[in-house]
Write a structure and sequence with these properties.
- The complex is a heterodimer of chains A (202) and B (431).
- By secondary structure, chain A is α/β, with parallel strands linked by helices.
- Chain A has helices at 13-24, 36-42, 62-71, 87-95, 108-140, 144-154, 159-166, 170-183, 189-200; strands spanning 5-9, 29-33, 49-54, 78-82, 100-103.
- Helices cover 57% and strands 12% of the residues of chain A.
- Chain A has a 5-stranded parallel sheet, sandwiched between helices.
- In chain A, β3 (49-54), α3 and β4 form a beta-alpha-beta unit.
- The longest helix of chain A has 33 residues, at 108-140.
- The mean pLDDT of chain A is 88.
- Chain B has 3 domains: 3-169, 2-Layer Sandwich (Beta-Lactamase); 176-262, Signal transduction histidine kinase, dimerisation/phosphotransfer (DHp) domain (Helix Hairpins), CATH 1.10.287; 268-424, Histidine kinase-like ATPase, C-terminal domain (Heat Shock Protein 90, 2-Layer Sandwich).
- Chain B has 431 residues and is α+β, with helices and mostly antiparallel strands.
- Helix content of chain B is 54%, strand content 19%.
- A 5-stranded antiparallel sheet of chain B has the order 2-1-5-4-3, with helices on both faces. In chain B, strands 7-9-10-12-11 form a 5-stranded mixed sheet. A two-stranded antiparallel sheet of chain B has the order 6-8.
- Chain B is built from 10 helices and 12 strands.
- The chains are: A alpha/beta (202), B alpha+beta (431).
- The A-B interface holds A 12, 14-15, 17-19, 21-22, 24-26, 56, 83-85, 88, 104-106, 108 and B 201, 204-205, 208-217, 219-220, 223-224, 238, 241, 244-245, 248, 372, 374, 377, 379-381.
Chain lengths: 202, 431
């Protein structure tokens, strides 16, 4: 998998360089951007990681960048860095879906911990996304009848009950069920139930 | 100018005009009379009745002029005062008509206005009606501002033989104008001061940048040094950055120092009640807008305080605005602000600004004067901290209280006498 990257957007180049120096000390990859627009132009959504963003920036503010990302359904976790008196703004940002915020001046460990949490959150989010994508691809390979059988099996019905419900012979249900297990790469009914549950989590 | 005095002036100009007409008529009549005298000396009885009527007319005019509350005067072309009414005598501080009649009007015109006065006289004798202002030095050497409406007086042949002038004292009006102008420049200074709070926030933001950078560079170094994964060579670059950022912070502070130096205290003995009234004047509008009543309980017998009045205005203004905003924010049903002044000990005066708002939460009482502490959604938390530094730089103290009726802020200022005794004490300690 891709190595996570910390994306820093800060109009103050010295601050951006210092953040890079600090964050690289814990062996994280860092990319810096001088403006919100530069980030929008240069960010590849496939790259995992998190975004460290100054609330106040000339041009497009951190908050506006957050709004743009939301509109574009880019779910990279954002950690806002705020100055004095901006806490209110940061709270609103978090309510609007930002991952976290940290007030200047901050403790380095505190920032690094938050970055680590944001990165794990992102990787879990990405893992869930890819699993869901894989599951829906597998489900798409089932025939309508196999789909029906799967749904009833997952509900905990026995072959006989499934056969009765669908008006099929137990033998036919047996065949469908084997096919479902094979197509879904499941070794047991428990596997199937787990997959179905994961698929339901949206 | 209000309509009342406009009307008065209109009336006076009309009166002036009718006086001119009447006086011209008198002249015409006198001329006629002379003709009549020459042509028909035999008709004695008719002659007498015409003369009676003329005398009657003149008497009537004289009564009107003499009872006129504004100065009415006639001047010859060379500036000699021909006639002046009692109001005019009072205006130039003359005891009797002889003090001024027969003398040149220039004797009561301030030297720098004589040329302007002459020019206006020339225009009147050229047939114009004019209005002019000048500074007068009265017979008792008082300096007054005057405004004269002047018109030419013509005889029967249309020859201009005198200037009819109606003059009033506009000293108070002038002073008010001057005061308004002075206040305007002072307001500009206040405006600069109130942006000081905003500037301070700006400075805080500015300073935060290099300080954050310094902290990040240093911590990055410490982490690498602890894990032993940095060479001496690699340390140089971040340390150079640290130095540069420290210099950047220093630069910002230098700007602040320059700014502060420009607004040093200029204290002198001031009437605190006058300062309070000035503040009420320019916060009244805002208070009324938020349906807030302002009450004053000012001790009239207070000694002067040693203060920079603009700075103290700024403090009171800030406290009043806070009170107005707090009561509006809390939607207080009763919104009243009371400003009290009274003697505090022997050598200080206390000013109290109390409101009927929600008061101050006990938990935050200790923080209200702290920098960047604010309860307002878009506040910067500089107002009270600046207020406190202003009061303390005056040698006073400020404190906040919260009771059943609302919040109150009290601050003390040393009286001018108290200040002197303190200096003397300090001097005697040195010697």
């Amino acid at each position: 998998m891709n190595e996570p990257t910390v994306f820093i957007v800060d109009d103050d180049q010295a601050v951006a360089r210092s953040l890079r120096w600090l964050i690289e000390s814990v062996q994280l990859k860092v990319e810096t951007f001088a403006s919100a627009q530069a980030f929008l132009d240069g960010y590849a959504t496939t790259k995992p990681g998190c975004l460290v963003l100054d609330v106040r920036m000339p041009g497009m503010s951190g908050i506006e960048l957050q709004e743009r990302l939301t509109v574009q359904r880019i779910r990279v976790p954002i950690i806002f860095i705020t100055g004095h008196g901006d806490v209110q703004m940061a709270v609103r940002a978090v309510q609007a879906g930002a991952f976290d915020f940290i007030e200047k001046p901050f403790n380095d460990q505190d920032l690094l911990d938050r970055i680590q949490r944001a990165i794990s959150f992102d990787s879990e989010q990405r893992a869930r996304d890819s699993l869901r994508a894989r599951l829906s691809a597998l489900l798409a390979s089932l025939t309508p009848r196999e789909r029906e059988v799967l749904n009833l099996v997952v509900e905990g019905m026995s072959n006989k009950a499934v056969a009765n419900t669908l008006g099929l012979s137990a033998k036919t249900v047996e065949v469908h069920r084997a096919k479902v297990m094979e197509k879904m790469h499941a070794r047991s009914v428990a596997d199937l139930v787990k997959m179905a549950m994961q698929n339901q989590e949206t | 100018m209000n309509t009342g005095s406009d009307m008065l002036w209109l009336a006076l100009v009309v009166l002036g005009g009718s006086l001119a007409v009447a006086l011209t008529l008198v002249g015409v009549l006198l001329l006629r009379l002379r003709e009549v005298e020459q042509r028909i000396p035999e008709k004695e009885s008719g002659h007498e009745s015409v003369l009676d009527r003329l005398l009657e007319n003149e008497f009537r005019l004289r009564t009107i002029i003499e009872s006129e509350p504004e100065c009415v005067k006639l001047q010859a072309e060379d500036g000699t005062v021909l006639e002046i009414n009692p109001a005019g005598l009072r205006l130039v501080d003359a005891n009797q008509p002889a003090d001024i009649i027969g003398r040149k009007i220039y004797s009561v015109v301030a030297p720098e206005y004589i040329e302007i006065y002459r020019e206006n006289m020339r225009r009147v004798f050229a047939g114009e009606a004019v209005v002019y202002e000048f500074r007068a030095i009265t017979l008792t050497n008082r300096i007054r501002w005057m405004e004269t409406h002047a018109a030419p007086l013509r005889d029967a042949r249309g020859h201009i033989y005198a200037l009819l002038g109606i003059t009033r004292d506009i000293t108070e009006h002038k002073q008010a104008e001057e005061q308004a102008r002075r206040h305007q420049t002072e307001l500009a200074r206040v405006a600069r001061l109130s942006t000081m709070g905003e500037m301070a926030t700006g400075i805080a933001h500015e300073l935060n940048q290099p300080l954050s950078a310094i902290a990040n560079f240093s911590r990055g170094c410490i982490r690498r040094l602890r894990s032993g994964e940095i060479t001496t060579e690699e340390m140089i670059e971040p340390l150079v950055e640290v130095c540069e950022q420290a210099e950047r912070a220093g630069e910002i502070l230098r700007h602040v120092r320059d700014f502060v130096r420009k607004s040093e205290l200029k204290t002198k003995p001031m009437d605190i009640n006058q300062i309070v009234r000035a503040v009420v004047k320019f916060t009244e509008h805002e208070a009324r807008h938020h349906r807030t009543m302002m009450h004053l309980q000012l001790d009239p017998k207070l000694p002067k305080v040693e203060a920079d009045s603009i700075m103290i205005e700024q403090v009171i203004c800030n406290l009043v605005r806070n009170a107005v905003e707090a009561m509006a924010e809390a939607n207080s049903p009763r919104r009243e602000i009371t400003i009290r002044t009274h003697l505090f000990g022997n050598d200080a005066i206390e000013i109290e600004i109390g409101d009927t708002g929600p008061g101050i939460d006990e938990a935050i009482m200790d923080q209200v004067f702290d920098q960047f502490f604010t309860t307002k959604p878009d506040g910067v938390g500089m107002g009270l901290s600046i207020s406190r530094s202003i009061i303390e730089s005056h040698g006073g103290h400020v404190r906040a209280e919260s009771g059943g009726t609302g919040a109150s802020f009290r601050f003390t200022l040393p009286t001018s006498e108290g200040q002197t005794t303190k200096h003397e004490r300090a001097d005697s300690l040195h010697s």
